[in-house]
Design brief:
Length: 297
């Protein structure tokens, strides 16, 4: 019986050898982040943090991808949500106003920041696509291991908004953060490791063994000692403004959503008239394959 984890429709949770493995489990949707997934992920993180048989957490994704981003079907794709069991007129609605949008983004951020605030270390195991919201999850983790051929980036910055979790600056530095966000281009796992966005990249066939071995090795250290180390480093990040920036970035994303630029207008128009798939194609096609390839050094 789990204390915190009340439902498991979109995630899997298992404990072995001192490690809680939390798996994003919407492989048919490429692990796109839904509202239900955000709730269940937070529950799973709290469950892991509270359990005495867990010293470390390994976060991964089922199927071909770690996470393809936020599920945009309801926002742009015209997918009707199930009728709520309350009067929606009494509550904020998405994008009803700048403040309503910022409020919604802040609530979502609160759930994601559970990774950062957890007492226990979280290792992200990244394979396949780690895009948009997938990077919001991965970069909040304490350590990221990636497959060399993983695809990491935030293509949505081309027309949809700015990342609502901003750790690009702290991991890659200001110039590379801007390079990635200005274009929405992506990096391979191998090149992401060279820039410091991830700790290391290994051949895809070795990723599971490497990530599990690291998680087990970390779990050999007592939970109380791990908490002291993690919180010491994270307090340093907070002194460098990381926590304040996360609070401010929700407002910047809400601001970006108000853009009336031609690419933003085109995306919304195509999504409404032709569907989300066509809008994504129209957004990304001018950028080619959208991959940054670092020159050898």
């Amino acid at each position: 019986m789990n204390k915190w984890l009340k439902s498991t429709e979109t995630i899997r949770f298992a404990v072995a050898e001192g490690v809680a493995r939390i798996t994003l489990n919407r492989p048919d949707k490429r692990n796109a982040i839904s509202e239900a997934m955000q709730v269940e992920l937070e529950q799973a993180l709290l469950e892991a943090d509270d359990r005495r048989d867990v010293n470390a957490v390994l976060l991964d994704g089922a199927g071909k991808d770690f996470c393809s981003g936020y599920d945009l079907a309801g926002v742009y794709g015209g997918t009707a949500a199930a009728a709520p069991d309350y009067d929606p007129a009494l509550y904020r609605s998405m994008n009803a106003s700048y403040d309503d949008d910022a409020w919604q983004l802040e609530r979502s951020l609160d759930r994601r920041l559970r990774i950062f605030d957890l007492h226990k270390p979280v290792i992200a195991k990244v394979h396949g696509n780690c895009l948009a919201g997938g990077t919001d999850l991965a970069f909040l983790c304490d350590i990221v291991l990636a497959a060399e051929d993983a695809r990491i980036g935030f293509p949505a910055t081309r027309a949809n908004g700015t990342p609502p979790t901003q750790f690009w600056l702290y991991l890659a530095g200001p110039q590379w953060a801007k390079r990635m966000l200005f274009t929405g281009d992506c990096l391979s796992g191998k090149d992401a490791a060279r820039l410091g966005l991830v700790l290391d990249a290994v051949p895809a066939e070795r990723l599971e063994d490497e990530a599990w071995a690291l998680a087990r090795r970390i779990a050999l250290t007592d939970a109380e000692m791990l908490a002291a180390h993690k919180r010491a480093v994270n307090l340093g990040l907070e002194l460098m403004g990381a926590r304040t920036l996360q609070r401010m970035i929700a407002e910047q994303d809400a601001r970006a959503h108000l853009s009336q630029g031609p690419r933003r207008k085109q995306f919304r128009k195509e999504a409404a008239e032709q569907g989300l798939k066509a809008a994504l194609k129209g957004r990304d096609e001018p950028f080619g394959d959208g991959m940054i390839r670092l020159h050898s050094r």
